Amino acid sequence: MKSTMKRPLLLLSAVTLLAGCQFAPKYAKPSLPVAESYPVAGTETAKPASDIGWRDFFQNADMQEVISSALENNRDLKTATLRIEEARALYNIQKADQLPNVNAAASDTRSRQLLAGSTPINRTVYQVGVSLASYEIDLFGRVKNLSDAALAQFFATEEARRAVQIVLVGEVAKAWLSERALAEQQLLTMRTLQAREASHGLVKKRFEAGLTNALDLRQSETLVQSARVAVLVATRQHAQSVNALTLLVGASVKPLPESVTLTAQNITAEIGAGLPSDLIEHRPDIRAAEQKLRTTQASIAAARAAFFPRISLTAGLGLASTDLSNLFEGSARTWSFAPQMTLPIFDAGRNKANLSLTEVRSNIAVNDYEKTIQVAFREVADALAARATIAEEVAAQQAVQKSQSERLTLAQIRYKNGIANYFEVLDAERELFAADQQLLQTRLLRLTNAVDLYRSLGGGLNEASK
Length: 466
Hints:
The protein has a single domain, classed as Outer membrane efflux proteins (OEP). The two termini are 74 Å apart. The chain is α+β, with helices and mostly antiparallel strands. Helix 4 (75-96) runs antiparallel to helix 5 (142-208), helix 5 runs antiparallel to helix 8 (284-305) and helix 9 (350-416) packs antiparallel against helix 10. The chain has ten helices and four strands; from the N terminus they run ααααββααααββαα. Strand 1 (102-113) and strand 2 form a beta hairpin. Strands 1-2-3-4 form a four-stranded antiparallel sheet, with no helix packed on it. Helices cover 62% and strands 11% of the residues. Residues 1-5 and 7-12 have low confidence and may be disordered.
């Protein structure tokens, strides 16, 4: 008798002891897979980008209006927000499995029984009560770890939404600047066309007066036609840039006056780059990758728990009667209590394969986490490298443009005085037009570099500075 009693006690003790085992891998954040500092030093004393609100960084009121509209209407951001609600619902569903489900039930069971040599018996049983559905006693943390995995996925989705916002603010700002640059380029080509038409008029008069040859006239006409082509190309590119900006914003964008030029924009505020280790705090895409890593590790714990016994309870309590009118007055009560323990013995390797799958996914998550950090490091390093030389590049290009402008003036004077042929004027006009365009692109590069540095350091999440 004593040995019979000892067996269930030993089994219960063993199960309780195993229940205290920790199946989840001990979480350790992977080491930083990049250098401890950037190749080009940043401004350490300036405020971090994550502390600078986008309204403080982008101080142009028109740009602020466009960014605000994008945050309200952009479809990618709306989808990312809805993904948060989806992940929250999935987490709530998974979390509910940790608590028992109690249901109210009512039934009307009718049966007919016919035995050999006897009269058929018709039977009706009415029953009401409450029942406890199959509830798993989570001794080994399987259900809890599945809930933890869903919670980490929810956090990852929240961080992903923040990452989408940061990218959106940066892309809208760059698209706005690109639209302004193309609008300014369109005006530049129009002014160039007007200047070349005026120059062509002078050449034509000199040709009619016999002071120049037909070659100069044809070269002048070529310049005019090439300027017209440039106007058409710039007009098309500007219209397409407006369409691209409209798509990003998710709503129509009001046209801006010509006075809002790229040259007048100044968003090159000083930003503290900090250290690569700071990116883990400031970049939501890195935090999202880390939460996905936590998700896979919780899944490993759930997969390990599947190798151990699973205990579930099913119970019910109610009233039963063969007469509906006496259902709540009679003394017939029913109850049931059915604990069940299931121990996997043979599953054709399903549990082992599932554990291997979760472990592989965890390794993939580690690799993705490290790759996300490396990409972030590269983005910041590129932006810092560009910032180190971009100011000098703009100054040098301004000097080139000024020299080409003076060269054209001298060439025109020499041509009018008959000292030089029209080829000098032709070459000077081409070089000046190219220098004007390059200066515009360099200024755009300076501004977009500031945006890239701001975004890559985690700026754009807050509206106002902290």
